[in-house]
Amino acid sequence: MAQSAQLPLKLRLKAWWEGYDPEEVARRLGTRRTAERPKPAPKPAPKSQEPAAPVNPDDPELPFDPWDSNRVEIAQYIWGEGYCGPGGPEHIISMSKLLALSPEQSLLEIGSHLGGPARTLADSFGVWVTGYEESPRLVELANEKSLMAGLAKKAVIKQYDPETIEHFERKFDRAFAKEAFFTIGKKDRMFALIEETLKPSGLFLLTDFVLGSEDARASDAYKEWRDGEAEKRRPYMTTAPELVDMLKKARFIVRVNEDVSDHYIELVNHAWAGADKVAEKIARQDDGDELLKTLVKEAEYWNRRVRLLQSGELRVWRILASKKADKPSMMSDW
Question: Which CATH superfamily hosts domain 69-326?
């Protein structure tokens, strides 16, 4: 990262969204500049300096709420008001058609972030949404946004710990989770809780990051991503077949099981294509310097994800599962 840090912000962002590696661009520029000027005498390394210890994936969870005010602001500049990741209202409406939502239904959402998807679903389909989110800061802001949107009762976000929650407070017709399960360690336990809280024949739609294959676990790029500090919460990765198997063991029937990685990459690249304009805008703000630093960190964070998706080490998977009816209507349900 030391080399890429020398590349001007606008060039770094431009290199990323045009498909170039910012570090490689910086390295080439650095090599050219070095050849054009005399090399300075090397500086001795400080004797007391020691390399940073690698992050152990078995260590305790990263800080509980990594969403500071700067990160929240940058997220909305990139993804849109109320969103913290790829896919705005149009995408949420399109993907949620699989759930066949209506105003008479209730929906459980896992990983609500700022509540953008919850409000989109409540406003577009009339469904009553109860979302669960780990970050206390995001929960507070999400409910403020729901109140301002006139959806305080139809898009309610609650704070929870996915590793310790014992039950949800009511029954739901539908469940929804958008890239929320890859940071949950006890996925099988959470699937069982969702199955328990869904009404008979209820539908559960999720998209999530999965390993492209078992071989990906040995990849240096994957290990760097998994163990690095850029991810907001530590990943606990499975392959798509493992995820499907967990759902089946929780007594779900898997209806849709597909790779949507290419479309996901398009969503990310489309959002970041305007990052130079975002940089110019926030540079004029009083807190512009700090926001620019956060913008760069977020660009590097998403760049790393996209590169792993493009290499096939990570994939994004979409699954639609249904809970069995009280009285089975077809032999395939058994």
Answer: Vaccinia Virus protein VP39 (3.40.50.150)
